[in-house]
Amino acid sequence: MESTLKKYADQIERNQVNPHVRHDGRRSGLIFDPKREDVPLEVLGFGVHKLGSEFDTRETGVKEVVLVPQEGEFEVEVNGKKFSGARAGGPFASRPGTSNASAVYIPCGARFSIRGRGEIAFFEAPALRENPPFYLSPEEVAVVSRGEWIWRRDVINLISPKNAGANLIVGETYNPPGFWSGTPIHSHDKDQLESGESDHEEVYYHRFEWKQGEADQFGAYGVQLLMDGKNLNKAYIIGDKSAFAIPGGCHPVVASPVSALLYLWGLAGRGGELAMRDIPEFAHLKQFEEIFKQLEGARPRPVTDAAVGEIAEKWGLTKEQKRLLTVMLREKGFRTG
User: Fold this and answer.
1) CA 178: distance to chain centroid?
2) Which residue of 108, 193, 212, 318 has the fewest CB atoms within a 10 Å radius of its CB?
3) In a domain, 245, yes or no
4) Are residues 269 and 296 in the same domain?
């Protein structure tokens, strides 16, 4: 959000506020409380519940809540309605291109009880209206492939104002090993829907497929960036159960080659739909995506310099973008020259 970024950008750059928390898996409750001055968020809260055999009862008050199981099984009762489900084996139990995710939406003014085994992550934010409780089962979840080549990923949309939420927008993204997300880099810091941008802050909760053993020195890792093109330019090494608060700015993430990465994401603002504005200097990567698709059937046929020139002219690529495209085509297995 524009106001959140303005408040916290300098503090993050000077290391006075840390947006990265590595959850130890032992405590239960809020990890990011937007009421705290050392949390670079204003409206969005995030935490993890450790489930037990006895019901834990809570009230939402003026907020709405979205629960997303991480592993184990759960029972939830919301205003007399009962939901139950499981995520056996955790978020990587399903094969790539599919998902075993589910989500429960709990409205404002609700009393809910939860019990089970394992962990369940949650987001909370001020509700803009009162909606009925809602459960999205794994059978209803759709997986959409986004991007191309080393920035290809699977996006799983769970909860949004389109199906349940009034403010919260929640989902997951699966990154193959070594691949990028948030590419081309984008922002959602301004309430300017006419320009293709909304005003939302965000939280990522990173999970890695490789489970670190006692003898492992480093374990699985990735890199989370946070930058605004002005004064904020930070990089963070992330691991399993890294929670990352995104007040605004651009926030691409890359998985290292040693493990797949799946991150749970949640957004909230002060109303309105989500719209992400691609940073213009990198928007040509979406043109590359279409070029790759069109040329996919050409391998191993050579792609001549003249053909690359025609493609560059057709898509209006600059000299630098044409050179980058040539490098990428070679790495993808096309014989250029």
Assistant:
1) 16
2) 318
3) yes
4) no
Distance separating alpha carbons of residues 22 and 166, to the nearest angstrom: 29
Phi, psi (degrees; rounded to nearest 5) at 314: -60, -40
pTM (2 decimals)?
A: 0.92
Are 227 and 309 in a shared domain?
no
Domain coverage including residue 184: 2-282
- Among the listed residues 251, 250, 256, the one whose alpha carbon sits nearest the alpha carbon of residue 237: 256
What token pair was written down for 244?
């990352």
Pick the last residue of a domain from 282, 301, 317.
282
Q: Any idea what DSSP says for residue 250? A: B
Percent of the chain whose predicted confidence (pLDDT) is above 70: 98
Quote the tokens at residue 152. 């290809």
Q: Residue 336 domain-assigned?
A: no
Which two three-digit tokens encode residue 188?
């959602």
Whether residue 275 sits in one domain with residue 292: no
| 132-146: pLDDT as tens digits | 999 999 999 999 999
Please give the biggest Cα pair distance in the chain.
Answer: 69
